[in-house]
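Comment thread on ticket #2218

A.B. wrote:
> Attaching the input chain for the structure job we discussed in standup.
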Amino acid sequence: MPRTTGRLLDIRRDQHSGELLARGGDAEAHSILQRARFVAVVRLHESYHRAPAGLTEDEETRLAIDAVGRLRAVGYHVDCDEPFDTEARPASYPTLGASVSHLAERLREATDTAEAADILTELTAPHDGILAGFEETLGALAEFFDGLGDASDPYTARRLRYLADEYVRVIHSDLAHTRGRLADRHAPHPGRRACTEPVPDHEPERSAVCACPPPPRALPAPAPPPVGATRLRR
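C.D. wrote:
> Ran it. Output below, let me know if you need it in another format.
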């Protein structure tokens, strides 16, 4: 089976600059690279990863070997310089982000508003919800920058506190209100109700698993009027 482009990566030293660079891969591969300490570089026409500044060549080699092993362990095809090749396949474990993404899967399967409200509570719970933890983490990171020592660090700390106060709290408040509306609604989702009706014997489609009719086709939204067009008055 041919490999898709997103499953291919190169980890090599640039022949001109000598920099350790990783190119290719999809979002999952980029997450693995960053957990192996690579730094993302996003340009207008290209994106890649590089080693952190200030490492020795031996440190960069160890970093590259670790990244190659991690990527190959989960099925990526990695072309690399010979010093980075490895047979090691480190074990991988579910990440915190993957656990949060599981909430999206549960929401896609939710059949009523009460179930959706319960799932949303994991985001909005004031003491131990995900957003409360995120806000606390931003505060702890701000404290870290407060004592780091560079002239720009106090500005970074203020910026982090601003994000927590002005953005995370707004999102938290809005979603908590949404969760309350769902909890009060007590309604099944009309497009996700379970079907208990048996499929009749005369059903022509053998793939049918329920007797429900197909959902109505949504009409396409009308195209916006051309720029400069005048509306007809009635």
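A.B. wrote:
> Thanks. Noting for the ticket: The two ends are 61 Å apart (CA to CA).
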